[in-house]
Specification:
Distance between the termini: 23 Å
Strand content: 25-35%
Shape: globular
Number of helices: 9
CATH topology of the largest domain: Ribosomal Protein S5, domain 2
Number of domains: 2
Structural class: alpha+beta
Oligomer: single chain
Helix content: 25-40%
């Protein structure tokens, strides 16, 4: 069976508190792109995993791979083609694990593998709360977007640690939105943005360039380092992608549709 594991995009991300065990509580609207990693899964006499693709070097091919953790004890052979960079805030590894869990009907294990995995099981626009364990579907019309990863990743644990050290105040929880649109994005943000720019200043440049190319909204995704811009139509996104590729020749740039 061939499965596409779509890239996840945090359209917004607010922290609302921190539990006694140190886990951050958050609210986020997530959507999924029409691009992602590819998995080919077949029954086998024993488990095996082969990783290839342009970002194969970003993913371990041993037991530390989230795919291997999701498939624990299953006799299946998996070929994983990594099209999505790691350390990007695009949930590539989580989406890969979710694809395996869905294949094996092991959805109940999602949260133990990673906070982004429950949403990736759905692969459709979701309102996410808690530590990623509380999900509600949310209405959203498809959005034309450009994803850009500047060629350098950020460690999610390091970003959480830096955010905690910064001692930023938390947001009051929002009510579940009826739908996600540009107006909603304009009144929300990503709380990791300042910390990400401090760690990797090119992110600030990328966000400014997205604005200059006509994005009606632009933002960091997750803990970064990937950013995205939302455009009025497919032509605007395609044109912006060309400009961004020229401006950042070492970056990974893809126009896409978010749903």
């Amino acid at each position: 069976m061939k499965i596409t594991a779509p890239a996840k995009v945090n359209l917004m991300l607010h922290f609302t508190g921190r539990r006694a065990d140190g886990y951050h509580l958050m609210q986020s609207a997530v959507a999924f792109a029409d691009i992602g990693d590819e998995l080919e899964i077949t029954p086998s006499q024993a488990f095996s995993l082969i990783v290839d693709g342009p970002f194969a070097a970003h993913a371990p091919d041993g037991p530390d791979n989230l795919v291997a953790r999701a498939a624990r004890g299953a006799n299946i052979a998996i070929r994983l083609t990594k099209n999505i960079p790691a350390g990007a805030g695009l949930g590539g590894g989580s989406a890969d694990a979710a694809a395996v869990l869905n294949y094996l009907n092991r959805q109940s294990r999602a949260l133990e593998i990673g906070a982004d995995v429950p949403a990736s099981l759905k692969s459709s626009a979701q309102w996410v709360e808690g530590i990623g364990d509380r999900l509600s579907p949310v209405d959203m019309k498809p959005m034309h977007a450009v994803l850009i990863w500047p060629g350098q990743g950020l460690s999610t644990p390091a970003m959480y640690a830096a955010y905690k050290v910064a001692g930023k105040s938390f947001h009051a929880p929002m009510a579940n939105p009826a739908f996600i649109d540009i107006e909603f994005l304009k009144i929300t943000g990503n709380d990791f943005t300042d910390t990400a720019i401090e760690s990797l200043p090119v992110i600030g440049d990328v966000l400014n360039t997205l604005r200059d190319t006509g994005a009606v909204a632009m933002r960091l995704s997750g803990s970064g380092s990937a950013c995205f811009g939302i455009y009025a139509d497919a032509m605007g996104a395609k044109k912006a992608a060309g400009h961004l590729s020229a401006a950042y020749p070492d970056a990974w740039v893809r126009p896409c549709v978010l749903r």
